């Protein structure tokens, strides 16, 4: 079964990340690793000057006291014990990531970090202020995710 790492910049408790994780579950095993608190507009930052902490929130859901980029790296290096997921999906971001704004987006950077590590990745956003578990952006993520799965476990 393919392994899908889900992250975001709105935090591990945001509705959007759980809507996205729910939408990915029919496609494979889902591991959620996201910041403990909102990390919007943090770009592709890494935490370098202090130790990072990983908290288990629930089964398959972890919070990191760092950036989305930290979350992807710790998810792969620590939680997956050096293995790469088959796909990294970042979102669902509250609001727009358009034009120059994508360079500041932690959600886009979470997907970028995943792609830089090797697996295919995508970033999702929603115009909904509060994405629900029935959010169209979550359902729309499934077809590209199906196409991007490169390998199966």
Q: Quick gist of this model?
A:
Helix content is 30%, strand content 23%. It contains five helices and six strands, in the order E-H-E-E-E-H-E-H-E-H-H.
What is the share of helical residues? 25-40%
Mean pLDDT: 87
How far apart are the termini?
5 Å
Let me know the number of strands: 6
Number of helices: 5
Based on Cα principal axes, name the global outline.
globular
CATH architecture title:
3-Layer(aba) Sandwich
Keywords:
single chain, 153 residues, alpha/beta, Stationary-phase Survival Protein Sure Homolog, Chain: A, six-stranded mixed sheet, globular
Q: What does this molecule look like?
A:
With 153 residues, the chain is α/β, with parallel strands linked by helices. It has one domain (3-147): Survival protein SurE-like phosphatase/nucleotidase (Stationary-phase Survival Protein Sure Homolog, Chain: A). It has 5 helices and 6 strands. A 6-stranded mixed beta sheet has the order 3-4-2-1-5-6, with helices on both faces. The mean pLDDT is 87.
Draw up the topology in text:
Layout: E1 3-7, H1 15-24, E2 29-35, E3 54-58, E4 61-64, H2 68-79, E5 87-94, H3 106-117, E6 121-126, H4 136-140, H5 142-148
Parallel strand pairs: 1-2, 1-5, 2-4, 5-6
Antiparallel strand pairs: 3-4
């Amino acid at each position: 079964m393919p392994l899908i790492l889900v992250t975001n910049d709105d935090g591990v408790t945001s509705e959007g990340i759980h809507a996205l994780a729910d939408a990915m579950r029919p496609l494979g095993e889902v591991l959620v690793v996201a910041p403990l608190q909102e990390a919007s507009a943090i770009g592709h930052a890494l935490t370098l000057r202090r130790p990072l902490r990983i908290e288990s929130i629930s089964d398959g859901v972890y919070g990191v006291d760092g950036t989305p980029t930290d979350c992807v790296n710790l998810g792969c290096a620590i939680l997956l014990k050096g293995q790469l997921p088959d796909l990294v999906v970042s979102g669902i971001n509250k609001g727009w990531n358009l034009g120059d704004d994508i360079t500041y987006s932690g959600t886009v950077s979470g997907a970028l970090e995943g792609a830089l590590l090797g697996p295919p990745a995508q970033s999702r956003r929603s115009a909904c202020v509060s994405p629900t578990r029935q959010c169209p952006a979550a359902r729309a993520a499934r077809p590209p995710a199906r196409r991007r799965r490169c390998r199966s476990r």
